[in-house]
Amino acid sequence: MPELPETETIARDLDREVRGRRIAGVHVERADVLREVSAADLPARVTGAAVDRAWRRAKLVVLDLSSGERLVVQPRFTGALLLDAPDRPLPDRERRYSTLHLRLDDGRDLHYRDIRRLGTVALMGPERWRRYAGALGVEPLDPAFTALHLSDLLRGSRQAIKKVLMDQRQVVGVGNIYANEALWRAGIDPSRAARSLDTDEAARLRDEVVGVLTESIAARGTSFRDYLDASGRRGGFVDRLAVYGRGGQPCPRCGARLIDTQAVDGRTTVFCARCQG
């Protein structure tokens, strides 16, 4: 967390807000979040560059710079990219956890806030980015993510279907929240071996993955505690979650008690034994 809907929301917001803005300065408060660049080198390499585009790849927020390099932010559990403006100042509780910030040429600051500092900020040249992105799996919202493509991925795996869905080398952007939700919607047991799904089940799962991600993007993501969009607002999809975070409560579909376990992949898995049996 943040997963695909949250990073997509952040990237869209930033593309609207900072595209075309020039980086006037950089201040690094916590260098331990940096990857592939030092705190001393980062200002020299990005100051003066313009932001050509902000976009998402997998669970990453990517800022394309006019220098040809890319700032690649992986928020992981508690990271957020937050704008700080004179007319919309960043609250002190968020500023306290700022690890670095970019001063923009219009007087605003773009902070990377990370409470637990498990996320990263990397600076990559074109060739390094090509290798890095090339190791990632298919985007579930791309046309290439067809039922046939997913069926082919599943056919060769003995692992639990939930684990395969969350493997960023196979399908990117799907984390624990949306894997739980998609599998419940599709009526598939999260612990089933991926290769045991038939073509109809794979097609149903593909549709539910796409559906839940699309719906969450429309609601600007899911906020439990730390996720905020670029303007500091919370996502609204939490009110539409069917199973995640609802262990022990009635299944919305059949009323049976939802099971909460960590036996599938070491992460919290919530499912209905009746609906997904």
Would you kindly provide a written description of the structure presented here, covering whatever features stand out?
By secondary structure, the protein is α+β, with helices and mostly antiparallel strands. The protein has two domains: 4-134, Alpha-Beta Barrel (N-terminal domain of MutM-like DNA repair proteins); 147-271, Helicase, Ruva Protein, domain 3, CATH 1.10.8.50. Helices cover 29% and strands 20% of the residues. The protein has eight helices and eleven strands. A five-stranded mixed beta sheet has the order 2-9-5-4-3, sandwiched between helices. A hairpin with a 2-residue loop joins strand 3 and strand 4 (60-65). Helix 1 (4-18) packs across helix 8 and helix 5 crosses helix 8. The two termini are 27 Å apart. 41% of the residues are buried. The model has no long low-confidence stretch (mean pLDDT 96).
Could you write a compact summary of the structure shown?
By secondary structure, the protein is α+β, with helices and mostly antiparallel strands.
The run of helices and strands is: HEEHEEEEHEEEHHHHHEE
Radius of gyration, taken over Cα atoms and rounded to an integer in Å: 20 Å
Mean pLDDT: 96
- Please summarize the sheet with the most strands: 5 strands, mixed
The CATH superfamily of the largest domain appears as: MutM-like, N-terminal
What is the terminal separation in angstroms?
Answer: 27 Å
What would CATH call the architecture of the largest domain?
Alpha-Beta Barrel
Total number of distinct structural domains: 2
> Uncertain regions: pLDDT < 50 for 5+ in a row?
none
Q: Give the C-level CATH assignment of the largest domain.
A: Alpha Beta
Specify the structural class.
alpha+beta
CATH domain fold name of the largest domain: N-terminal domain of MutM-like DNA repair proteins
Principal-axis shape equals globular
Largest sheet, spatial ordering of strands: 2-9-5-4-3
Count every beta strand, where a strand is a DSSP E run of 2 or more residues: 11
Helix content: 25-40%
Q: Please work out how many helical segments DSSP would assign.
A: 8
Strand content: 15-25%
